[in-house]
Design brief:
homotetramer; alpha+beta; Butyryl-Coa Dehydrogenase, subunit A, domain 1; Butyryl-CoA Dehydrogenase, subunit A, domain 2; Butyryl-CoA Dehydrogenase, subunit A, domain 3; 3 domains; 4-stranded mixed sheet; 4-stranded antiparallel sheet; 8 strands
Amino acid sequence: MTDREIRHAELAARYLPDELLERFRERAAGYDRANGFFDEDLAELVAQGYLTLFVPTEFGGPGLSLNEVSRLQQRLAGAAPATALAVNMHLMCTGVVTAMVDRGDRSLTWLFGEVMAGEIFAFGISEPANDWVLQGSNTVAEPQADGGYLLTGVKIFTSLSPVWTRLIVHGLDSSGTEPELVYGFVERDAPGITVSDDWDVLGMRASQSRATILRQVPMRAERVARTMPPGRHPDLLTFAITSNFQLLVGAVYAGVARRALELGAAGLKHRMSAKSGTTYAEIPEYRTRIADAYRDYLAVPAQLDAYSRDFDDLVDHGSRWPQLLVSARINASAAARRATETALLCAGGGGFANGSELSRLFRDAAAGLFHPPSADAARPMFAAALLDD
Amino acid sequence: MTDREIRHAELAARYLPDELLERFRERAAGYDRANGFFDEDLAELVAQGYLTLFVPTEFGGPGLSLNEVSRLQQRLAGAAPATALAVNMHLMCTGVVTAMVDRGDRSLTWLFGEVMAGEIFAFGISEPANDWVLQGSNTVAEPQADGGYLLTGVKIFTSLSPVWTRLIVHGLDSSGTEPELVYGFVERDAPGITVSDDWDVLGMRASQSRATILRQVPMRAERVARTMPPGRHPDLLTFAITSNFQLLVGAVYAGVARRALELGAAGLKHRMSAKSGTTYAEIPEYRTRIADAYRDYLAVPAQLDAYSRDFDDLVDHGSRWPQLLVSARINASAAARRATETALLCAGGGGFANGSELSRLFRDAAAGLFHPPSADAARPMFAAALLDD
Amino acid sequence: MTDREIRHAELAARYLPDELLERFRERAAGYDRANGFFDEDLAELVAQGYLTLFVPTEFGGPGLSLNEVSRLQQRLAGAAPATALAVNMHLMCTGVVTAMVDRGDRSLTWLFGEVMAGEIFAFGISEPANDWVLQGSNTVAEPQADGGYLLTGVKIFTSLSPVWTRLIVHGLDSSGTEPELVYGFVERDAPGITVSDDWDVLGMRASQSRATILRQVPMRAERVARTMPPGRHPDLLTFAITSNFQLLVGAVYAGVARRALELGAAGLKHRMSAKSGTTYAEIPEYRTRIADAYRDYLAVPAQLDAYSRDFDDLVDHGSRWPQLLVSARINASAAARRATETALLCAGGGGFANGSELSRLFRDAAAGLFHPPSADAARPMFAAALLDD
Amino acid sequence: MTDREIRHAELAARYLPDELLERFRERAAGYDRANGFFDEDLAELVAQGYLTLFVPTEFGGPGLSLNEVSRLQQRLAGAAPATALAVNMHLMCTGVVTAMVDRGDRSLTWLFGEVMAGEIFAFGISEPANDWVLQGSNTVAEPQADGGYLLTGVKIFTSLSPVWTRLIVHGLDSSGTEPELVYGFVERDAPGITVSDDWDVLGMRASQSRATILRQVPMRAERVARTMPPGRHPDLLTFAITSNFQLLVGAVYAGVARRALELGAAGLKHRMSAKSGTTYAEIPEYRTRIADAYRDYLAVPAQLDAYSRDFDDLVDHGSRWPQLLVSARINASAAARRATETALLCAGGGGFANGSELSRLFRDAAAGLFHPPSADAARPMFAAALLDD
């Protein structure tokens, strides 16, 4: 059996070689300052085949597992968090279909063909004030005679907004006796799609996660993925979305945390202390500070590894799955915030400059507060796990 | 005896009435975006007599105590953190002299006259890589025949850089057999002063705390405040500086924390939940989140109150004073970071917009990591209190 | 004006001299092991006049303030936490009446005479499953023709159970059209009182806080203190109870925290490291550990000082008072738990022995989780402060 | 491929069926109160074949992996923490040899025969003031002509002291030009072994981890496992010890944390609130409390799973291994302390009784502060990982 860590290292060298990461890191500063999209990064990722990572070999892709992609995304996020967060959305869409195939559902394998053909997928799930998230929608889905739907509503935080060509969306069909949630895909060139130009946020700016306004946008019948009742309802599609979303978003923040610690360490090595006559890297109180943050960080990639490998191995955690997945993502984003704060303490005033990579990571890390479900929105699930039968 | 809280409320109404604060708050967004100095705020503060708060009545000022100014600064910081942080520097200089007078040293009372005449004082103590802070200096002080000095060195984080007219500075005179630290004041129009134009930082931007380069800047003999050996050396001037600095910087972050919690609460009242059919202010998990942050916050103004009143009452905490003062400031800045993070969780994605007051407070709060002594630089002092005799 | 700290030191020397504390500390181990009451401590405290601390000079006592008693209780708790926690109950009863006198209500001054005559007061408020605490009661109060009541119910955690002679209790009179809460005092030799012999708990064992069963126990008419509606109802008696209870219970845990840090420091000085060839007191990671705990601790006595002095000075915090008081007590008990944990880390395996003072403090500190309102019971109050109008 | 979780459930049912655990849990209270050893538990574990879990099938055992044993130990610790912690020591000795076999070193396979024959192994590594732990020893090892040694020294925290028949020990041979560490096994009936009768500690009492005094105790030549230089020195034996020790000790505290949360939940379901008219399980603030603790806990078994599976799969983390292993164990023990504290808050005053399982778990969890390396002793390793080359 090949050592997993060797395999990860090989994949890193193949898909995200050091010199590529260095270019990403340098461009990240400019994208952030200009509030621009990561076009050049994307072009290089496409050239690397990065957007096909999840596509199974039988469909022409490299067939990477969620565990493997999670590691790559951690690595990418260490260089360009917003690039990683945004490309995540495309990767998730492909990962979802791979997960379904692995579990015997081949209904969405058409997506692999489109991915191989260069289509870029994005996520149109989040909506204003919809804390049901996957289990409900404020978007109206009007059924059409041919089995398709017309969708009208607003989707927010649509990463990749300048470039996506396919969007996974959901809406609520209230035309029948019982309301039904509809999941499926719409195309960018369909009529009725407007992308907001309002995007000026604290962090993860290059993701350009603008709102998407849908006005009677057609979802073709062959692109309808699922209909299901709103509310809690076990379904392979939504399970696959949750799994890919939580673990890959977690991977991004794990990468941010890791990079912040590296920058904190570099700061300590760089700073000179008049009092001790050494660099700060030799002052015990600072060593202790970064040691504690590093120890806390270590649990994060471990938790991501454990769950992503369970997922890849088709381990059945049953109703515990959402708890596990969400806790991993929440822990990762908390680690990113703590690690960037620690790193600022280590780097000193120089880290506070807007030109420093660290001050950008600090802002990027704050985005981790907002992915669904938020820490508070998830509390009832964790309480119920212990208290409700 | 007048109720202290009534007195604080009267002072708030007199010096920082609500409508003034509202103007400050509105302008704060613009200063931050434009990376500009708070000229209009300053003009209004001057008009209010805010810059004379500490001047004793015998010198024509209102003679406020440190406890009273601390409360006003908390209030000001709740509207305009950078304005509060910068004007702090002027207030400290006056507060230092007041504290010396209260303890029988009237050697610097000339400063009151200058303050009443409209001079603006600032702090030129912090230097690159000088973690001795008050106890050492990398600035060269060359003694002159008339008892004055010529100063050459770099001072960093000089708040109020566009407007200060007087700067408290220190330097090291190594010309004699034993090195001596010199403290005193220089004037803005003295030769040899250059103010850096490099200022682009994450938060507290309107403070315009640019670096100040000193090249043989004359400190006139009558403006020399102290000479003393470098290292630990009990002295009323440096004690007064430490006290005013730690407690008033702490006040700024206490004010930021308080305001963040208000914004978090406003966010919860504003947001609607599809799941609960109410605002988020009625969802227990969010109520609990902000409740915990508020409970944590309460210790901060209490600690500032306890110590500032002890200071005003001339209570002698002896060698424990620095521990008390520094712990209060560190706790305040930690509370600001935690409160802004909590408030972002409460406000949801809207708080992440660069146009939101909260995202600015989040950046402003991060500045609290850097005031001297940092959490790590202070650790030896706290350890020594328990372990060394 | 006399320096407050000098005054505190004088009171410490007068009421709790070092050698007395040392005897308390030695006996504490025995009381804990034998699950016995602190009879000898109590005799010495009585001899010191400690039980009359709050009695105003006009009634023959020393007339100490809440701030002064808070400091003495911190000191006492550092030697014998359970003794301090139990004698607290008596002190509170007297402090409550003093607070009422200070605010113009002399209706309960008879209590001072009893205290001077040697009666010992205790608290009979807590009841099983009564999370209304002061605002409700499961104890039945039957009104009698003479204005007195007969009380039937169970009171729990009645500290001082072996020795109290007077018990402040409350009960609910449901005989009229509207239920009424009755507050007053019963005497130990009244008929119907049974003290449980069930007491075997984790910590604070010497407090002997056994349950008290009341079966038609007479509260004489002249010992009825108040009747009021159940629920939230502003009243000077209950305000005085809350203030004394929260701040003096907080004082006990502040004292435990402080002592734990001393023991942690002593542990570090005692332990030798083969690796460093020094004591642990010279190893930076351990110094940092105890430094952080000490810094955290400092906020606790400061908060107690701020509020107890406000209380003594009749500062009116209005509806904010309960938040302030409860937060101070919760912070103190959290600090005690954290400090004892830190101290165990510093003391190493030796601290784990049942014979070590530290392992006892660790158990005593855990009692702080249970005083009303608990951290969770208090959360709605803190949330309401920000969210409800 | 069999679902791992199904396999874990099967092993749980086979080796630790519910009714067995229930007996362990009931007896745990008695062992703790009487300060007695878990004789009856041990007899049942022996009967279950639990002491042979790690013995490979080729040597007649069931050949369980570290991941599988980790899960069983979590389960056992949930019922009887001290039993789990003590039997851990025997399991580690066998696990160490299994790990060596898996990596090609069959030099200690004689141990399997002894385990199958009923010998009970224990750990004699910890020594007073030896913070080198595995990398040094204060025990004198005198080389004998036949290749054996005579050992003289003191070993502390020797769990299983009443029953062990084989002890893995190390000592320092300073007879040659270079000092050498010696690792090997001694037999209980060898001359010179005294087991202290001093054992009265806060928690994990049934482990009876008494000190072992060695006075020229012979280690037979064929029981010498290794000689190596003191200090950092890569070696399969010490790597296998570290891995088994950290992960299996971590498993014990993970089990304690999990059980504490169950007891906290049971407490909430049991308690009635007069205020809400429901059980506490329906009060949001308490639900939130236990939800947060549960979410924090989830990372702990995940981290143990990730690393134990990597270990079983022979993944090579190189010099990162010790960081990973130690962080997992420290996190597990912290989770146990936090979970027992949270559970006490949930269970209320009833949990404070010495008769409650929870108050015992709270004391047992405190033992987790002391396993080597302690949190502070480990800080340099984590710092070095980031800062040193």
